[in-house]
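Discussion board: Methods & Data

I've been asked by a reviewer to show the raw model output for two of the constructs in my manuscript, not just the figures. I'm not sure how much to include, so I'm pasting the format here to get opinions. Each protein appears as its amino acid sequence followed by a line of discrete structure tokens. Is this the kind of thing reviewers expect to see in a supplement, or should I convert it first? Here is construct A:
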Amino acid sequence: MPVSTIGYAYQLYEQGVFGTRQEMDFANIAIRGGRSWDLLNHQVPQVLCAEPAQRPTVITITAGANDFLRGDVNVIAIASRVVMAVNQLLNNDNGRAVPVLDPFTGQPCRRLENVTILVSNYYSIPHPDPIVVDLQVRFPAAEVAGLGNVGDL
């Protein structure tokens, strides 16, 4: 059976969900088998420190399943890492997030502006967990970024 390399993000691109294919460039920085740590520590810095012409206007994040399937059953911690990643994307250079530094200048990379961030996951928390509610209070930009109710992560 052949292995498909046409993932979710490419299917959205191919179907013109965010614009016609001639008007946009597509880049997929997904990591096969990646975990929420990879998102936070590697993928977010790669996006934030990109040259202006390479900065995205749409980001899709699907995170959590690999963490859980590899024994990390702390869904709150997984969701927290996703929230921290989105917070860095939106607030990296304004003091509201631990900044990702440009490897050449040592200065915080610029936060993303005019971006749509779509977050999906494979699990839900059936009741408002106090830790998640605290995350919503500390990172209100997550709701603006399209996460909706972080308690549903």
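Construct B, same format:
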Amino acid sequence: MMPPSPAPRSTTTSATFIYNLPSPPRLPIEICEQIIDVVDCLLFLQDSRREVTLRSCALVCRAWHPRSGMQIFKCITLVDHKSSKRFIAALDANPSLGLYVKSLRISSVRYTSSPMDHKRFHFGFSPRDVFVLSPGALRGRLPSLTSIYAEWY
């Protein structure tokens, strides 16, 4: 005959509590778009800070991406062949970006990011490049374009 088996020990399990907390209040998308527009206006003259800030806004959430993209591509500045090739490649990859472009600035200078610093950096565009770049490469791709600026120093 076998000896009786010992009584099983009682085990206690810790209870897991799941709380149904309400989600944080969400701002209406119209308010978020107004914030993005204000960021664009405040940093408009500081191109490098403006673009970095708007790119960060585009990464916040999917809802912020369209308005941020619209502000990023509203005013395009091309300062050399590299920037023009990047812009044309972006249009090739996503032709709808051309709808956002309202003004195009073709320049031989790029300003520093500091508004108090008036130094300029010279790059490779010359006046003849406007005629090479604009008519051929961008024809029909910027239907919302209202102005083209060209500046050389």
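Answer (T.O., handling editor elsewhere):
This is acceptable in a supplement if you add a one-line summary per construct. For B, something like: The chain is about 40% helix and 15% strand.
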